[in-house]
Design brief:
- This protein is of the alpha+beta class.
- The chain has 2 domains: 3-176, Formiminotransferase, N-terminal subdomain (Formiminotransferase-cyclodeaminase, Chain B, domain 1); 181-300, Formiminotransferase, C-terminal subdomain (Alpha-Beta Plaits), CATH 3.30.70.670.
- The chain is built from 8 helices and 11 strands.
- It has helices spanning 15-26, 53-70, 99-117, 136-140, 147-150, 192-202, 239-251, 290-300; strands spanning 3-5, 8-9, 31-39, 44-51, 86-93, 121-125, 172-176, 181-187, 212-219, 224-231, 257-263.
- Strands 1, 2, 3, 4, 5, 6 and 7 form a 7-stranded mixed sheet that branches. It has a 4-stranded antiparallel sheet with strand order 9-10-8-11.
- Helix 1 (15-26) packs antiparallel against helix 2, helix 2 runs parallel beside helix 3 and helix 6 packs across helix 7.
- The radius of gyration is 18 Å and the shape is globular.
């Protein structure tokens, strides 16, 4: 039984901290670290690892312990929304695993995280106990800065843990879901209003493409803007469909696409109707495909 886990942590500017978090995961028996990606503008890192159930649970708990010792959200700023030092932890079924197994794992890990670290935890996606908590963006609305006030509302008491934020680590969101593609498109412009307008047009919540979450953000270090997206079901809305939609909307403003980028790994099937060249994926390598990365890791032992 193989399960994938893709935690997002609120640290993208201190490489030594991210390296330490990756080492903690990689050093857990029964777990293979597949990928790590950091972004300074988002001030966020994504770790991707896979393994059997018990190893995955142990790696997540070790990650929380290391992250809470080194990340303080009181001094954290970045363009990506967040409520926690370890912001979100999804479990994804791979070979031999079912969604039911991942939901059970999410609940067990969430309860242990809350008890061990005195940290409020919300369940989301397939593990959500309440329909209004299924969507990550609803839980994260208000971010860390608004979390204390939000948690005063009985409707936003956590599923596990204290009824107030952790002073430095906020809260965490843990759940189970199908594979998600974190996909960003960088525009040849510094016009944040245009990036936000494009995001509003294409995202599902505004009446756009199904299974697409999108926001426009500035990349201050590069002087450009980005349409940052999560594709929650690439079999319904593909990467090519999203790329074409962004390109079309950008062209109405006389703006071109510079490049796109993957955060983490992508299933091979997600590229079946297109190519990295067509999508202008920056610095694409074959081992950015999930199945190829797993094959290479297995070959290396």
């Amino acid at each position: 039984m193989l399960i994938e886990c893709i935690p997002n942590v609120s640290e993208g500017r201190r490489p030594h901290v991210v390296t330490r978090l990756a080492e903690v995961v990689a050093g857990t028996p029964g777990v293979t670290l597949l990928d790590r990606t950091s972004d300074s503008s988002h001030h966020r890192s994504v770790l991707t690892f896979a393994g059997e159930r018990d190893g995955i649970a142990a790696a997540v708990l070790a990650l929380f312990e290391a992250a809470l010792a080194t990340i303080d959200l009181r001094t954290h700023t970045g363009v990506h929304p967040r409520i926690g030092a370890v912001d979100v932890v999804p479990f994804v079924p791979l070979e031999g695993a079912t969604m039911a197994v991942c939901v059970e794992l999410a609940m067990e890990v969430a309860a242990e995280v809350a008890a061990r670290f005195d940290l409020p935890v919300y369940l989301y996606e397939d593990a959500a106990r309440l329909p209004e908590r299924r969507r990550l963006e609803d839980i994260r609305r208000g971010q860390f800065e608004g979390l204390a006030k939000k948690m005063l509302d009985p409707a936003w008491q956590p599923d596990f843990g204290p009824s107030h934020p952790h002073p430095t680590a906020g809260a965490s969101v843990i759940g189970a879901r199908m594979p998600l593609i974190a996909y960003n498109i960088n525009l040849d412009s510094d016009r944040l209003d245009i990036a936000r307008a494009i995001a509003s047009i294409i995202r599902e919540s505004s009446g756009g493409l199904p299974c697409v979450k999108a926001m426009g953000v500035p990349l201050g270090d590069r002087g450009i803007v980005q349409v940052s997206m999560n594709l929650t079901n690439y079999t319904i809305t593909s990467m090519r469909t999203v790329f074409d939609a962004v390109e079309s909307e950008a062209s109405t403003h006389g703006i071109d696409i510079l490049e796109s980028e993957l955060i983490g790994l992508v299933p091979a099937a997600a590229l079946a109707d297109t190519s990295p060249e067509y999508l202008r994926i920056a610095d694409f390598r074959p081992d950015m495909i999930l199945e190829e990365r797993m094959r290479l890791k297995a070959a290396r032992g």
